[in-house]
Every structure is written in C-alpha cells, then in structure tokens.
Amino acid sequence: MPKLSDSLTIKGVTLRNRIVMPPMANDLSDESGAVTSRHLDHYRARAEAEVGLIIVEHSYITPRGKMTAPQLGIHDDGLVPGLRGLADTIRAGGAASAIQLTHAGANTTAEIIGCQPVGPADVAVPGRGVEPRPLSADELSELIGLYRDAARRAIEAGFDAIEIHGAHGFLLSEFLSPYTNRRTDEYGGSLENRLRFPLEVITAVREVAGPDYPLLYRFGASDFMQEGLALDEAREAAPRLVGVGIDILDVSGGLCGSRPKDLSGVQGFYVPLAESIKSVVDVPVIAVGGIREASFANSVIEDGRADLVAVGRELLKNPDWAREALASLQ
Ligand SMILES: Cc1cc2nc3c(=O)[nH]c(=O)nc-3n(C[C@H](O)[C@H](O)[C@H](O)COP(=O)(O)O)c2cc1C
User: Fold this and answer.
1) Is the distance from CB of 70 to CB of 112 less than 8 angstroms?
2) Most exposed: 29, 219, 304, 312, by fewest CB within 10 Å?
C-alpha cells in the first residue's frame, strides 16, 4: 500500500505526496472577486511547505452564486490574469493546483446577491432559513454555460485541475439532496433525476477541459439528516459522477448546518464516507475531517481507506503542517 509521502499522478499531473489542502474560503477578496496579494501569500506559504495538492477555495461562477461579499470570483474574463498569478504562485512552490467552482444556490442571502437566492425548490437549506426561488429549466441551461465559462477561465489561468463543488448545501448538492430537491420535473424525484443537473454540469466542464485534464468533484456523500441524502444513495451516485468524467472524488458531507453531532475531537470524521465511496469507484478518493496527526493521515493511506488526505484547519493554523508531518514520518 502507498504511504502519505508517495506521489500520485493523475492525467499527467503529479502530486508530490498525498497531502491535500482542501478548499477553504478565507474571504480575502473584495466585491470584485479578484485575487489579492493576501491570497498569494496565503497559498504560497502552504505550497512552499510541501503540500501535494492545493485546492483553492470556492470561487463563484456568477455574482448570483456568491456566498459572501469578499469571496474569490471566477465569473469574469478580467479576473484571469489575477488567477494566473495565483496558479503560478502555487506551482512555483512545488504543489499542484486546483480551483473550486461554485454556485451557492440557496446557501446565501438577498443582501449578498441583490435578489432572492435560487435553488432546486422553495426549500431553505438548514441553517439559512431563506426560502429560495426554484430555478427554471432554461435557467439551468444558462447555469451550465456559466460553469463552462468558469472552467475555461480556470484552464486559461493555468490551474492543473478543476474541482466542482457538489457538497455542503451548495447548488449541486441541493439538487442531489431529496431534502432540498422537491421538484417534480426531470430534475427532481428519483436519484436519476436529482443527479441530472450535476451530471450535466460535469459533462459541460469535461467538454471544455478535454479528455486529458483532471477534474475533481467535492462530493457530499451524506446529509446526515432525516429526509436528506443517505450514504447508500451516494454510493449509487458516485460511479455516475465518475462515468461522466470525474477523475478524483473529494468526499465530504453535511448539508450546511446538518453536520454529524459531537465531532469535536474526532479525527478523520468523514474518512468512513470516503472509504465507503472508494469501494464503489475506480478513481482516487480524498478523505477529510478533523485530521491532525501525521501518523493518522499516513494510516488512512496505508490502510487503503483513501488515496489522498485533506488537512484543512490544521493547515490554516500551521502552514508548515505538511512539511512537519512528512519529516515526522521518516
Ligand atoms: C474557514 C473554512 C472555509 C471553508 N471553505 C470551504 C470551501 O470554500 N469549499 C469547500 O468545499 N469546503 C470548505 N470548507 C470545508 C473544508 O474544506 C474541510 O472539508 C473541513 O474544514 C474539514 O476538514 P478539517 O477538519 O481538516 O478542517 C471550509 C472550512 C473552513 C474551516
């Protein structure tokens, strides 16, 4: 079995080890969504300190899909030079780079986006209490075009990979979740129908990216709530995501406020989700959730529970986490 320090190559992109910095919004932009020098400093510090893959935080594909005012954007061609500087900075540090494309769906407010938030149906995501306006089929087609444009910008900017956000109550997970998706057209109801929009988005992004470019999907594999998406449905969905072009599944969970209770102190709290999804797909899987210790991260890889481990808050606290972890395992 591989170790934490082993490299992994996906479609010609080599990750120097199995440590991933997961997407973590840090609201370092301004209303324009542009990359700032603070983004460069933030990501440079982790790239230079041995992280294998840095997935840049959620970046909105349209201002109507923003979650916070100073969020990073990828919705306009004018942002590409700044994004290129960010991709170059990460590469110069020796890490591979991806950027997460998002639409917040109902996981935002009218104050942020200037109009009523949208979603698959008029059901608020937990923790928000904002009733969204259901999207029409025509609007879904427009959104697919916006994902496609955002993907083109990510590639033009030189990112090694793209991650599509399909977790945490953002738009694509709202479509997959039976809790938020109460539609009665071909985009709601059965698992097949709830998967339709996410699959159409992935297919469009794959068309832009071509066959040889790595695509990741942040996959919310359980909502951990009554009437929400359960792991057994996620296990049916996962091979479908791979079937339309996903190369790495970045497994997470929870529909906004519906995270499993009492997770504080539990190391690897979503590793069982990743392990379960890994058993039904033939692509690498990322595991995440409260990972603090190098020995634990290494055991996840050595025990074959996942192919990569994401370390979020520990890397925020300590930019040198990956370097120190790898040194401690030698
Ligand atoms: C400040 C912060 C911002 C986050 N932003 C995002 C995000 O933009 N996209 C995403 O998919 N997850 C986001 N997450 C979730 C993380 O990627 C990660 O899954 C979570 O923090 C659990 O990992 P950890 O316990 O190692 O921190 C965020 C988490 C934190 C703490």
Assistant:
1) no
2) 304
Cα separation, 130 vs 45, in Å, equals: 37
311 CA closest ligand 1 atom index: 26
58 lines ligand 1 (CB under 6 A): yes
pLDDT along the chain (330 residues), means of 10: 97 98 96 97 98 98 97 98 98 98 97 97 91 98 98 99 98 98 98 98 98 98 95 98 98 84 82 98 97 98 98 97 97
DSSP string, 154-186: HHHTT-SEEEEEE-TTSHHHHHH-TTT----ST
Closest CA to 204 of 135, 151, 140: 151
Residues 6+ apart with CB under 8 A from 284: 8, 10, 247, 248, 249, 307, 308
Radius of gyration, alpha carbons of the chain:
18
- In this structure, the residue with its CA closest to atom 22 of ligand 1 is 289
Q: Under a CB-based contact definition with an 8 Å cutoff, are residues 109 and 129 in contact?
A: no
Ligand 1 mean position, distance from CA 185 (Å):
33
Pocket test for ligand 1, best of 19, 20, 21, 24 (most atoms within 8 A of CB): 24
Query: 268 CB less than 6 Å from ligand 1?
Result: no
Q: Does the beta carbon of 75 sit less than 6 angstroms from any atom of ligand 1?
A: no
CA distances (Å), origin 232, targets 45, 95, 170, 228, 275 = 39, 34, 21, 12, 13
Please, what are the domains in the chain? 8-329 (3.20.20.70)
